[in-house]
Design goal:
single chain; 385 residues; alpha/beta; Spo0b-associated Gtp-binding Protein, Chain: A; Rossmann fold; six-stranded mixed β-sheet; five-stranded mixed β-sheet; 16 strands; 23% strand
């Protein structure tokens, strides 16, 4: 299952309170204040990792709570600091802080005052659980596999971090400072202070983690245009290929290798439909993955297999990209005519050039490896590698 957006509840550890104590030992019956300081709370830290490709770990563990600091002790002993928790996320993860929301996402309920509170178990595809006297499957595997999730509303969220480089870290929530023991408040006039500081609470909040895939080239097109076939032909990626629309339901990334050992990444975005900029067909879940691309490949079914006209597809795709984000239409663009091996494709290509003049078109047949050498050279020039 591919997860590219998830909400988490993060809380740093609270600082331990300072201790009120006085030294009492042999030959020193009134040794003075000796209360130790409380330990600091642990931090919640995010770290980008290029070995990960989605956020499924956080989907099943949405509660990210660091350890509290221990309280101070007598004889000047300070409390132990709480352990930090390090959460690894894929490179390209954006972190949004959600304001005005105190509950956990996805139906998960946790009492924040109780560290031992149990998180409601997530719905696991294919899991069998007992309900009454019968056993039932929560979600059939066929129905749950590779189903895209709806985009979250970011109207009340603010961007706080963008983790793009391997090893880059960001402190999501900082632990609270430990309180000072009473030995820190002793003066010449107040030699036996009867008070100490409480520990400070750690930072907490609801955060939205959003993955935008890091790739040089993005493939866009209508369903069944042949994007997955093209990705398979130019790389070692093996996305599912079938003769029906919406075979690909999640973004797929392939690595194109060249003879001089240069490499570039290509992202195959699931097929767009009219109104994708309004999230029709979960367009937002797909379009965000090509925002980081250096160039965009517009793949057209020049044979019109599904009864669509290639020139109408091209114009509508440009409209969807521009309405979603005007910056995307300004990126270098490569127009590719696929399925050129079919008889009707030559006639449609002539009509396309008349209706969309001054637009260079690369002719390929991904299924039969025609024109792929020229295509690979074009995307290399666009990626400038």
């Amino acid at each position: 299952m591919f997860i590219d957006e998830v909400k988490v509840n993060a809380r740093a550890g609270h600082g331990g309170r300072g201790c009120v104590a006085f030294l009492r030992e042999a030959y020193r019956p009134k040794g003075g204040p000796s209360g130790g300081n409380g330990g600091r709370g642990g931090d919640v830290i995010l770290q980008a990792d290029h070995d990960l490709n989605n956020l499924i770990n956080q989907y099943y563990v949405p509660k990210l709570w660091a350890e509290n600091g221990e309280h101070g002790l007598g004889k000047g002993m300070d409390g132990r600091a709480g352990k930090d928790i390090l959460i690894k996320v894929p490179c390209g993860t954006l972190v949004w802080k959600v304001s005005g929301q105190d509950s956990l996402p996805s139906g998960v309920t946790v009492d924040e005052t109780d560290e031992d509170a149990e998180v409601a178990p997530p719905v696991i595809p294919g899991a069998i659980r007992r309900q009454g006297g019968e056993f039932a499957v929560e979600v059939p595997l066929d129905d749950a596999e590779d189903k895209p999730k709806p985009a979250f509303d970011k109207s009340n969220a603010s961007l706080v971090a963008d983790l793009t480089h391997h090893g880059e870290q960001f402190i999501l929530c900082k632990g609270g400072r430990g309180g000072l023991g009473n030995r820190n408040f002793a003066t010449s006039r107040r030699q036996s202070p009867q008070y100490a500081q409480p520990g400070e609470p750690g930072e907490d909040g609801i955060y939205l983690l959003e993955l935008r895939i890091m790739a040089e080239i993005g493939l866009v097109g209508y369903p069944n245009a042949g994007k997955s076939t093209l990705l398979t032909a130019i790389s070692r990626a093996r996305p599912k290929i079938a003769a029906y629309p919406f075979t690909t339901l999640t973004p797929q990334v392939g690595i194109v290798e060249y003879a001089d050992m240069k490499r570039l990444t290509v992202c195959d975005v699931p097929g767009l439909v009219e109104g994708a900029h309004l999230n029709v067909g979960l367009g937002h879940a797909f379009l965000r993955h090509i925002q980081r691309c250096k160039a965009i490949v517009v793949l057209l079914d020049m044979a019109g297999t599904d009864g669509r006209l290639p020139w109408d597809d091209y114009r509508q795709l440009l409209v969807e990209l521009e309405r979603y984000n005007p910056e995307m239409i300004a990126k270098p663009r490569i127009v590719v005519a696929n399925k050129i091996d079919e008889a009707v494709a030559a006639e449609n290509l002539k009509k396309f050039k008349k209706r969309v003049p001054k637009t260079p078109v690369i002719q390929i047949s991904a299924a039969f490896d025609q024109g792929l050498a020229e295509f690979k050279e074009k995307i290399r020039q666009a990626a400038d590698i």
